[in-house]
Amino acid sequence: MSRTALILLGPPGAGKGTQGRRLSAEFSVPSISTGDILREAVRNGTELGRQAKQHMDSGGLVPDALVDAIVRERLAREDCRTGFILDGYPRTVSQAEFLQREYAGEGMKFLAVGVQVKDGALVRRLTGRRSCPGCGKIYHIDASPSRNGDRCDECGTALVQRRDDTVAVVQERLQVYHQSTRPLIEYYQSRGAYAEVSGEGAVEDIYAALRSIVEPHLPERRPRA
Ligand code: AMP
Prior knowledge:
The protein is of the alpha/beta class. The chain is built from nine helices and seven strands, in the order E-H-E-H-H-H-E-H-E-H-E-E-H-H-E-H.
């Protein structure tokens, strides 16, 4: 059976996490965020977390070798058998080449979808973002606040602001995106494996656009209840 890797490409704050979670809930594939895995490692004080923390706090990238190893371990799990969504990986051409080298020979198909949002809007989105460390749900203090004040309206956990969602670190992350990650658009375009949606507007509309692109590629649907 062929295996589809859906890659959500786009700047920080484009909504990749929110849309990846929705796609994952509708289609029977996991949404894998290297950022989430790294943040958990930092929280748990593991060796990986120790090595990643300084890069994350400054808005830079964690070295390719560390992130590639995380992805290799995660993709080996049973739930990735028919396909998966990658949110925040690859972020460099070297990481994209790692994926290609390791998995293309196994019949894995890649589809990168760019979620595009202008930089000005991203700063506002990121600095107002709050997330739930319990279930991962993402909020915005103005655009999509929790009905429960500073607690998650799904699981009741206290919401947090990411350490790297401050103005100074956000500027650095956007610069890193333009320098290191944006070139991946051309990388996948040149392989005929790139599509794009606008990440501006209502979450529902963005999801509908994304869904129509990915539906033919993520074949197994969770049966409706
Ligand atoms: P994210 O949650 O995707 O915005 O990632 C948060 C931070 O984790 C980034 O700013 C990087 O420091 C690190 N990170 C996440 N994914 C990667 C990756 N694929 N390569 C390098 N660093 C990453």
